[in-house]
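Appendix B. Raw example, untouched.
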Amino acid sequence: MEQLVYWSAITTQILKVTEIPRIIRQLTQSQPSVQRATVEQYFTPSASFTHPFCRTGSFEGSRWFVWCIYRWYKIMSPRIEIEIDGIAYDEKNLTLYVNIHQVFRIWVIPFFHAPVSLVTVLKLVRIPPLPPQSSYSTPINPNETQNGSLYRTSSSDKPLYHIQSQNDLYQVNEFFKFFSPFGILGAFLLLWQFVATALCVLGSTIFWPVSWVEQNVIGGNKERSIGEAVTG
């Protein structure tokens, strides 16, 4: 899916998979004006943001809260190390999946750093094509300024897409890294995960007759219930 991920809703530029890292870095590593322009360019006015620590909901004007979250994120951690490990696009459901790892530091807490991995899910929406004669002032790449402005005028008659929601998904052990000193909670969680695996092995061994009945009598999840199998 290298040809098309989505169109910017107010420019004629086709955004490819290779463009996504640039957009994410503008959201997380750029100066405030570029950060805000990026949010306004790629998110719908009613866009929502969901994270283990916060959420905005979706309503007219909620995009402003998305920008505030990104601004506070950058204030807490002025120098963020972030890498994009992989991107997948579900064209049928208009969904982008971005695998990310980052090192988050809080400048007021010496020696604190949280190397975490997450998957960001971006839901897109189609925007009706703009009239060919229409023109709009739009944010541009910060390296392409005109007269010191972050905006340019353009039009489009192509199908257009915007980000409707962003959902940051963390494994529990990754989430604990944000507030667990020296990885103590993470170590306990790791131990519990191995214990839970051992319990799964024990349970599957003790209750093997249930599997035998499902395989030989019921015939799988979509065939018959246990009650139907017993009654014939």
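End of appendix B.
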